[in-house]
Amino acid sequence: MNPGGYDMDKKKQSVTRMENPYIKHKTLESIREFKQKRKLKRRMQLIVAAGIMLVLLVGSGLVRNYYTLQQLEDQKVQAQEELESLDLRQEELEYYIGLLEDEEYVAKLARSEYYLTKDNEIVFSFPDDRNPDHTKVTEEGSGVFEDEENESEEQSE
């Protein structure tokens, strides 16, 4: 039972439907209006779905570009570090080239390394003689200036 005391099923059964042109016209008009609203609703849903897809597509492109940018920045940092290392190595090599242009250094090197002597000269070699600086430069990745740089970094910390 309804709050008004009427049974809805009985009320529907007791109401007869009029079949005249006006009612048919209004019924067709309401059906047409319902179909238009449903069509409009579907169109709006399609537009919203297309908008969401567009946002996702653009967003994924932005994320991909951001990730690529981060990788390129990392590569740039690594390349700069390698460039600094190579510049330091070049400075070391240029330093030793300058030393090799000095005749006194070359004579000292020939005496210590190859035991060459002048007339009436004797060379003494001890087992714990340290290797000359030029041997450090000929080894890849090690250098005199790098040691000095590491010492200065340790002192600054």
TrEMBL record:
<keyword id="KW-1133">Transmembrane helix</keyword>
<dbReference type="Pfam" id="PF04977">
    <property type="entry name" value="DivIC"/>
</dbReference>
<dbReference type="InterPro" id="IPR039076">
    <property type="entry name" value="DivIC"/>
</dbReference>
<feature type="compositionally biased region" description="Acidic residues">
    <location>
        <begin position="145"/>
        <end position="157"/>
    </location>
</feature>
<keyword id="KW-0812">Transmembrane</keyword>
<keyword id="KW-0131">Cell cycle</keyword>
<dbReference type="InterPro" id="IPR007060">
    <property type="entry name" value="FtsL/DivIC"/>
</dbReference>
<feature type="transmembrane region" description="Helical">
    <location>
        <begin position="46"/>
        <end position="67"/>
    </location>
</feature>
<protein>
    <submittedName>
        <fullName>Cell division protein DivIC</fullName>
    </submittedName>
</protein>
<feature type="region of interest" description="Disordered">
    <location>
        <begin position="125"/>
        <end position="157"/>
    </location>
</feature>
<dbReference type="GO" id="GO:0051301">
    <property type="term" value="P:cell division"/>
</dbReference>
<keyword id="KW-0132">Cell division</keyword>
<feature type="compositionally biased region" description="Basic and acidic residues">
    <location>
        <begin position="125"/>
        <end position="139"/>
    </location>
</feature>
<keyword id="KW-0472">Membrane</keyword>
